[in-house]
Specification:
This protein is α/β, with parallel strands linked by helices. 32% of the residues lie in helices and 20% in strands. It has one domain: Vaccinia Virus protein VP39 (Rossmann fold), CATH 3.40.50. The protein has a 7-stranded mixed beta sheet, sandwiched between helices. The longest helix has 12 residues. The protein starts with a helix and ends in a 16-residue tail after the last strand.
């Protein structure tokens, strides 16, 4: 029995079957990411989403996303290696450029004016992760998803990280928590476009998922009869 068959018997996550039964191009993923992906991406299946994945590697995950999201999905791979251009195929495009280059990312926005999901699985350096988030998160559709993975590189010196080092993506993401609560700072003066467009931040081991949704000014009220 294959690993994929075993997972199908015990789980309902189709990504686990696609990954563990894969006989196509090489895919490299931490196993617990598959649950995270499915939790946040399931609602886009069969809805023809535009998905940008940064970091093409051998192209296997691009094929996995095409199968997972179904007919009509547009999968866009982004990589700095020009050889990856040849991994394009049915419903799969490949763009060559540096994710730390803001002008390249600006051009990417122009070429793909509608983006539902961004998956950052690229070079994993601090500059790359922060730059890509700043340039592409505002571009994601109002009810889309931005997922950055392999956040453990924020603790690894070779990627520019270390525990609580200023300038890592983890430290940057901690600041996003404050921005999420901008309504409650300075009588709402700190509410910025991120505050107004972000419904939730989901932190997992090595993964951050930012879930977008237009957010109005929070309101509260009381119901029922006082008992004291």
């Amino acid at each position: 029995m294959s690993l994929g068959s075993l997972f199908r018997k015990t789980h309902r996550n189709p990504l686990e079957a696609l990954f563990f039964d894969n006989r196509g191009r090489l895919i490299h993923k931490w196993h617990h990411y598959l649950e995270i992906y499915h939790r946040h991406f399931e609602r886009f299946r069969g809805r023809s989403p535009v998905v940008i994945e940064i970091g093409v590697y051998h192209g296997g995950s691009l094929q996995m996303w095409r199968e997972y999201f179904g007919k009509g999905a547009q999968i866009v791979g982004v990589d700095v290696n020009p050889e990856c251009r040849f991994l394009a195929g049915r419903s799969i495009s490949v763009e060559i450029g540096d994710q730390a280059d803001r002008s390249f990312l600006s051009g990417l926005r122009r070429r793909y004016p509608h983006v539902d999901i961004v998956i950052d699985d690229g070079g994993h350096t601090m500059v790359q992760q922060i730059t890509t988030f700043e340039e592409l998160y505002p571009h994601v559709q109002p009810e889309g998803i931005y997922l950055c993975e392999d956040l453990h590189t924020s603790y690894m010196e070779q990627y520019g990280g270390d525990l609580r080092r200023e300038g890592t993506f983890i430290e940057y993401a901690k600041g996003l928590v404050d921005r999420l609560h901008g309504w409650h700072q300075g009588e709402g003066a700190a509410a910025d476009p991120f505050t107004r467009s972000t419904f939730a931040l989901h932190f997992y081991e090595s993964v951050l998922v930012a879930e977008k949704r237009p957010i109005p000014v929070p309101v509260h009220s009381k119901t029922g009869t006082p008992s004291l």
